[in-house]
Amino acid sequence: METAICGRVALSPHQIFQPKPGDKKPRQKQWTNRNALMAMPIAGVGKGGGVLDKPVIEKTTPGRESEFDLRKSRKMSPPYRVMLHNDNYNKREYVVQVLMKVIPGMTVDNAVNIMQEAHHNGLAVVIICVQADAEEHCTQLRGNGLLSSIEPASGGC
């Protein structure tokens, strides 16, 4: 008769599938943590001994969106432009520093180009992103003393 190894105790398939009359617990291990419940039933079929079935993971926080859903909804939102307006109060170096601090991934070269465009044309596009991010960037630019606004990327000039 074949045996299955469960932990360090050898069990026969008969003991695994048909518990003894006094057993109250099924032959199944369970682990829990804060977010998931995993049950791993033990099967003892075949020559290789005991085989663990694929774990079943159940969410304990229903109704919460996953990170994938949040990223997908952001990508599908209509784009907005964050606009930098020229002012006569801030030095050019300061404008470059604020752009690099507020906008993720902003390089020195891009910040200088945006600052120059705003200085010469009165207005420059800083970044195009979803509305929520555009509002946040605009608020941060204003909080650092720069004049900025947002507008839909599809409309306007």
UniProtKB/TrEMBL annotation:
Record domain Adaptor protein ClpS core: where: 77-143
Region feature (Disordered): 53-72
A Pfam family it matches: ClpS
Composition skew (Basic and acidic residues), residue ranges: 55-71
Swiss-Prot/TrEMBL GO biological process terms: protein catabolic process; proteolysis
Residues passing through the membrane, by range: none
PANTHER family: ATP-DEPENDENT CLP PROTEASE ADAPTER PROTEIN CLPS1, CHLOROPLASTIC (PTHR33473:SF17)
Name of the protein this chain belongs to: Adaptor protein ClpS core domain-containing protein
